[in-house]
């Protein structure tokens, strides 16, 4: 269907649903879509449908009216329980009588829910793997994806709004948290007002720098009088990595570890008040970029075009500038290879000193 065939005059959009089922970082990068829709229809109620485990990324977004969620833990209680919960959720969503559904997801359930809303405008991507009558039937408009390989994920998401012909697009990524999150961080860092956040871990270890390299940077910054706060996820492998880094330091002095201790929203509050963020390709890296905290992002071998930190206030140090990296889609995610080790310690330190100056 062509753009001019839209059955709904833009000024009539009162209720909008945005659907995205993916990981935490992906959810954060949907916020420009939400900002743009709210800018176009300030009085519209914008709801989001996501996976329950990613709720925190959007929980305090000021432009979101309500969050609906599919809990992937439902299936652990049996197929009947799962279907019952999903049917209940769909009934609640159908009652909202949405004017526009923006389906950013590629799962079949997203398409089915999109169709069942009966919204006059139902936007989806024309994914090559989903070409067929059913996917088309679920959407009123399918937007091509043939240019996505040249676009950042933010730009890919925003391209789905093209049929709406919005007068302005807001490409700002926004991470929000509650005042209680800030207070919780202040209690953990009693008396500490200036600090550098270092996030050395990712759930994918091929995205990580070696513990010895990270320890060398922390040691140098510590010796120069800076306070360091180490963070990580709660996974035992990430915690072990942080312990190894701490073990490589000559002293713990002005180095604090909050590894595995913070919620995502508390982590956002911590990063927001930091002098500098140093981290690998991970959710906290995207959070730091969105919060405009001075940031050094150690990157590789993920696809730089699609996943570099958007609107970063700082520097992206790409391992591909130092060594030939494998194609992102060809990387064995279980490999022990540390591709980032090609990045010199002194390069990271030089960047840190520039941003702290």
Give an overview of the whole structure.
Helix content is 34%, strand content 15%. The protein has 357 residues and is of the alpha/beta class. The strands form two sheets. It has a six-stranded parallel beta sheet with strand order 3-2-1-4-5-6, sandwiched between helices. A six-stranded parallel beta sheet has the order 9-8-7-10-11-12, sandwiched between helices. Helix 8 (211-223) links the parallel strand 7 (196-199) and strand 8. The longest helix has 16 residues, at 79-94. It is globular and about 65 Å long. The mean pLDDT is 95.
Q: How would the global form be characterised?
A: globular
Q: Characterize the quaternary organization of these chains.
A: single chain
Proportion of beta-strand residues = 15-25%
How far the N terminus sits from the C terminus, by CA atoms, comes to 54 Å
Number of helices: 13
Averaged pLDDT: 95
The H/E string reads: EHHEEHEHEHEHHEHEHEHEHEHEH
Biggest sheet character: 6 strands, parallel
Strand order of the largest sheet: 3-2-1-4-5-6
Q: Got a strand count? A: 12
The secondary-structure class comes to alpha/beta
Percent helix among the residues?
25-40%
Which radius of gyration do the C-alpha atoms yield?
Answer: 22 Å
- Ranges where pLDDT stays below 50 over 5 or more residues in a row are none
């Amino acid at each position: 269907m062509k753009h001019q065939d839209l059955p709904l005059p833009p000024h009539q959009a009162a209720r909008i649903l945005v659907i995205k089922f993916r990981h935490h970082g992906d959810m954060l990068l949907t916020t420009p879509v939400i900002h743009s829709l709210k800018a176009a229809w300030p009085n519209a109620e914008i709801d989001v449908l996501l996976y329950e485990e990613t709720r925190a990324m959007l929980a305090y977004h000021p432009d979101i009216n309500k969050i609906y969620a599919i809990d992937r833990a439902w299936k652990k209680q049996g197929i009947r329980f799962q279907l019952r919960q999903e049917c209940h959720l769909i009934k609640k969503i159908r009652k909202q009588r949405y004017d526009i559904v923006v389906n950013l997801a590629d799962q079949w359930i997203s398409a089915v829910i999109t169709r069942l809303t009966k919204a006059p405008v139902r936007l989806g991507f024309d994914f090559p793997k989903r070409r067929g009558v059913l996917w088309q039937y679920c959407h009123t408009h399918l937007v091509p994806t043939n240019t996505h390989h040249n676009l950042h994920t933010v730009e890919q998401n925003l391209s789905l709004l093209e049929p709406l012909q919005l007068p302005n697009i807001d490409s700002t990524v926004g991470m929000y948290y509650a005042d209680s999150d800030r207070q919780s961080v202040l209690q953990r860092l009693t008396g500490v007002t200036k600090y550098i956040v270092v996030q050395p871990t990712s759930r994918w270890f091929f995205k990580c720098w070696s513990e010895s390299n990270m320890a060398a940077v922390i040691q140098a910054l510590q010796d120069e009088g800076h306070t360091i706060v180490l963070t990580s996820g709660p996974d035992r492998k990430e915690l072990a990595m942080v312990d190894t880094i701490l073990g490589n330091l000559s002293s713990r002095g002005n180095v604090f570890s909050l590894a595995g201790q913070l919620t995502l929203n508390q982590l956002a509050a911590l990063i927001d008040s930091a002098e500098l963020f140093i981290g690998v390709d991970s959710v906290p890296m995207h959070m730091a970029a969105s919060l405009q905290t001075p940031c050094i992002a150690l990157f590789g071998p993920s696809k730089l075009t699609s996943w570099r930190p958007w609107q970063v206030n700082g520097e992206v140090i790409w391992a591909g500038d130092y060594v030939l990296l494998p194609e992102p889609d060809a990387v064995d995610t279980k490999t022990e290879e540390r591709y980032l080790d090609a990045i010199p310690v002194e390069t990271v330190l030089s960047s840190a000193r520039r941003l702290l100056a």
